[in-house]
Specification:
By secondary structure, the chain is an alpha+beta fold. It is built from 15 helices and 18 strands. Strands 3-4-5-2-1-11-12-15 form an 8-stranded mixed β-sheet, with helices on both faces. It is globular, with a radius of gyration of 21 Å.
Length: 397
């Protein structure tokens, strides 16, 4: 069976996360999105585990269900060198025992615990409980594994179960690194709120025997991720090398000559694009036979917001979003499968925007330095919209 899965989210107990991130909100919003399997996030936080248990029915083999939405226990841990790791946990008993044993200064305060353990030590610790582990948003310059290490094995000492790409990278970029050809890639939302433009903004379509921890474990082992879905990487806010103050994109060599200081006085942050080129083995991607397509898309509410130049939570944007969901089902189906002519009957402008993603006719100003990229459509949109050009800055956090 093919399962749409977003395996990296956070709960209301994580810093900078909406208080609405509770099971009773996440479950219905996930179904509206088109997700079937969702990571709980924050599964080392005792109070969050209490909420998960109280709000769901345990179906066995690591699956906790709220109505038609299935959850699997996950957490993100910040370990040595401020590197973030995504951990998928087989059951509640394991999560509670690991939470008690984990060396951490803030595990009962923040949903994302900080630990002094190295990547290798964390790997050994979670494997005692048969967990799945891999680097979270691997290439992100602040907390990604590749900001510190040139190799996955330098971090873990052994082979982790997967590699999560993050918003500023896709498979074309990651498959220029030879050692990564042997890994399943994940694209997850890292959602901090249950709004549909956050939850499932990146997700995976995975072939699974059934919805269970054991089946997910086999899927990573046998690399049966069938599709990755997510933003075009140049929309990511750390895609290019840029100043974190004025956001000017700067040539990496010039940045190094100036000791990563911008003329405005700000600090220059190395971009994912350049970091990958530093450690790449190939100038062009070499995809292994198991590598699925990476489909670029953008949350439906973001598209509507862009087309109408109105805030995502306004009545206009939410009204059109709801009409499309009511007519065609979950958001993922609207974005990927619904015929454009059908979408046009409800909103012609939105149909043109979706067509731009499906046919890769977008104009993108890359992001960098902490600022998301900017997006426009080709002259077809200009024609349809009375020759007016629209460029907007994406708002993802």
């Amino acid at each position: 069976m093919l399962v749409n899965a977003d395996l990296h989210t956070h709960s209301c107990f994580s810093a900078a996360t909406s208080k609405d991130m509770v099971i009773n909100n996440i479950a219905p919003k996930s179904l509206e999105k088109g997700l079937k399997l969702v990571g709980t996030g924050d599964a080392f936080h005792p109070k969050w585990l209490d909420i998960v248990e109280e709000s769901t029915e345990y179906k066995g083999d690591g699956i906790y269900s709220k109505g038609e939405c299935d959850f699997i226990l996950t957490t993100e841990v910040e370990a040595q060198h401020k590197i973030h790791h995504l951990i998928i946990i087989p059951n509640m008993d394991a999560a509670r025992e690991m939470s008690e044993k984990l060396v951490s200064s803030n595990k009962f305060v923040d949903g994302r615990p900080r630990s002094p353990l190295s990547g290798a030590e964390l790997f050994d610790f979670v494997k005692e409980y048969d967990c799945l582990i891999g680097p979270a948003h691997s290439f992100t310059p602040w907390t990604g594994m590749f900001k510190t290490y040139d190799s996955v094995y330098d971090c873990y000492g052994k082979k982790p179960d997967f590699v999560e790409l993050g918003l500023s990278a896709d498979t074309d970029m990651a498959d220029t690194i030879k050692e990564l050809s042997d890994f399943a890639f994940l694209s997850n939302s890292d959602a901090h709120s249950p709004w549909p433009h956050r939850l499932g903004r990146e997700f995976n379509q995975i072939e699974m025997e059934d919805i269970s921890f054991s089946s997910l474990q086999k899927a990573f082992k046998h690399k049966t991720v069938k599709s990755n879905y997510g933003l075009p990487p140049n929309l990511g806010k750390y895609h290019m090398t840029a100043c974190t103050k004025c956001y000017k994109i700067i040539d990496p060599d010039i940045a190094k000559e100036n000791k990563m200081k911008c003329s405005c006085g700000g600090k220059i942050k190395k971009g994912v694009d350049f970091r990958i080129r530093e450690i790449a083995d190939y100038s062009e991607p070499k995809h292994p036979s198991h590598r699925p397509p990476y489909v670029h898309l953008m949350p439906l509410a973001e598209l509507i917001s862009m087309v109408y130049d109105k805030g995502i939570t306004t009545k206009t944007v939410q009204g059109i979003w709801q009409k499309l969901i009511d007519a065609f089902g979950p958001e993922i189906d609207v974005l990927i499968n619904t015929p454009l002519e059908d979408i046009s009957k409800i909103d012609k402008k939105v149909a043109i925007a979706i067509d731009g993603f499906r046919n890769k006719t977008l104009i993108v100003v890359p992001g960098g330095g902490g600022k998301y990229g900017e997006i426009s459509f080709n002259e077809e949109m200009d024609k349809e919209e009375e020759k007016t050009e629209k460029i907007v800055t994406l708002d993802y956090f």
